[in-house]
Amino acid sequence: MGANLIDIVILMTVLEGVALCAWHAHSGRGMAPRDFMPNLAAGLALMLAVRAGVASAGWGWMAAGLLIAGLLHAADLHRRWQR
Predict the structure, then answer these.
(1) Which residue segment(s) compose the domain that 28 sits in?
(2) What confidence tens digit (pLDDT) does each residue in 41-78 have?
C-alpha cells in the first residue's frame, strides 16, 4: 500500500511540473521552469529515495536519491543566492 501511495505522489508531482511548464509556455504567465524545476526535482529525488526504501531496494538506491536531492537543493540555493 505504501509503495502505491508514493507512486501516486510521484506521478502527481511530475504532472504538476508538466502542467506548470505548459502553462508558462502557452501564456507566459506563472513561474518560469528555471525558477521551480530544481526544487521540484529535489522533491522528486527525495520521493524516489523513500520509494526505494519502501521497496526494500539496496541502500545504494536510497543513497543515490538522497545525494541527487541534496545536489539539486544546493544548486537551487546557489542560484537564488546569486540574485
Answers:
(1) 2-81
(2) 999 999 999 999 999 999 999 999 999 999 999 999 99
34-57: b or e for each residue (b if 16 or more CB lie within 10 Å)?
eebbbebbbbbbbbbbbbbbbeee
Rounded to whole angstroms, how far apart are CA atoms 24 and 60?
Answer: 36
Residue 22: Cβ within 10 Å count:
11
CA distance 46 to 52: 10
CA-closest candidate to residue 45, choices 6, 81, 18: 6
Measured over the CA atoms of residue 66, residue 67, residue 72 and residue 77, the dihedral's sign is positive
Residue with cell 511530475: 14
Total number of domains constituting the chain: 1
